[in-house]
Amino acid sequence: MSRPSRLQRQVLSLYRELLRAGRGKPGAEARVRAEFRQNASLPRTDVLRIEYLYRRGRRQLQLLRSDHAKALGAFVRPRGPTEEPGGAAALGTSPDDDDGPKSPLDDTGAPEIRPDGR
Asked: Residue 115 falls within a domain, yes or no?
């Protein structure tokens, strides 16, 4: 097996640092492991993406090390009971195609004028 590149060594070092910083903070270690597993399949040639994720991980490490961080979580949009993975965007439709409530502002940013004058 070939010797790891500088970037590979940096990524492994970041992984260890994130795990150490996450000890004792609920959800941190599991989140770190899941994030790294999710991106483990990136091709080695995708250096720009790897460097971007590395910088993002460095920022998260700074946040985890700060005294203000008590836990680590993720923002997840819950799926509706009939919503498929991929959602309406995968089918080529936009959320504006339905007859549900719309924004009071139209595409220009001006208030929408309703037929009843409100």
From this structure: no
Q: Decide if 111 is inside a domain.
A: no
User: Number of structural domains, the chain?
Assistant: 1
What amino acid is encoded at 29 in this protein? Answer: E
Domain membership of residue 70 (yes or no) is no
Full residue range of the structural domain in which residue 40 is found: 6-65
Q: DSSP letter string over 7-42?
A: HHHHHHHHHHHHHHHHTTSTTHHHHHHHHHHHHTTS
The span from the CA of 58 to the CA of 41, in Å, is 20
Burial class (CB in 10 A: 0-12, 13-18, 19+), 69: middle
Amino acid letter for position 66:
S
Per-residue confidence in pLDDT tens, the chain, 118 aa = 688 899 999 999 999 999 999 988 888 899 999 999 999 999 999 999 999 999 999 999 998 888 777 766 665 566 667 655 555 544 454 455 555 555 444 455 555 555 665 5
90 lies in a domain? no
pTM: 0.59
